[in-house]
Amino acid sequence: MSNISAAPTAKPEASPDQFFAVDIRVGRVTDVEAFPEARRPAWKLTVDFGPEVGTLRTSAQVTNYGREALLDRLVVGAVNLGAKRIAGFKSEFLVLGAQDGDGTIHLLDPGTDVSPGDIIC
After folding, report:
1. Beta partners for 25?
2. Which of 15, 33, 50, 93 has its CB 3.0 to 4.6 Å from that of 77, i.e. a possible disulfide?
3. Helix (H/G/I), strand (E/B), else coil: 27
4. 56 Cβ partners below 8 Å, 6+ apart?
5. How far apart are alpha carbons 73 and 12 in whole angstroms?
6. pLDDT 10s digits, 45-55
7. What residues have CB less than 8 Å from 90, skipping those under 6 apart?
8. How far is residue 5's CA from residue 101's CA, in Å, rounded to a whole number?
9. Taking the C-alpha atoms of 44, 77, 87 and 99 in order, what is their torsion angle to the nearest 10 degrees?
């Protein structure tokens, strides 16, 4: 996820087909590693998205969360956007959060009555 410093603006209209093509699921963080090679402070997260999707890794600029706060946390991720190389690391999904006016990312919280692999709709 990137930090955007400009004021938020509305994005162009997307069709329902474009929106529903994105596979958004609940996952559980199973590992958190430092990522000193990244240009901006970030963590490497390993997330279990259940048996259908499996375990995926991503780079996330969510260093406002400590390792302990992330480990075992439920998160929301877009899992079918393809992989991207970030400072030599293969990032396989996009973890979702809300960005406040200071640029800080606050991870979306899917609640407690959901499980890894559950679909966000």
Report:
1. 77, 119
2. 93
3. strand
4. 27, 46, 47, 49, 77, 79, 92, 93
5. 32
6. 999 999 999 99
7. 57, 83, 84
8. 8
9. -90
What average pLDDT does the chain have? 93
Amino acid at position 28, single letter? R
SS3 string of 80-96? CCCCEEECCEEECCEEC
**In the block, which residue shows the tokens 């009555």?**
113
**Which tokens belong to 100?**
């406040």
Two structure tokens written together for 97: 């959060």
H helix or E strand, kind and range, residue 31: strand 24-34
Q: What is the pTM of this model?
A: 0.89
* Pair of tokens at residue 19: 């929106």
- Dihedral angle of Cα 48, 54, 59, 61, to the nearest 10 degrees: -40
Query: Tokens 């699921």 map to which residue?
Result: 25
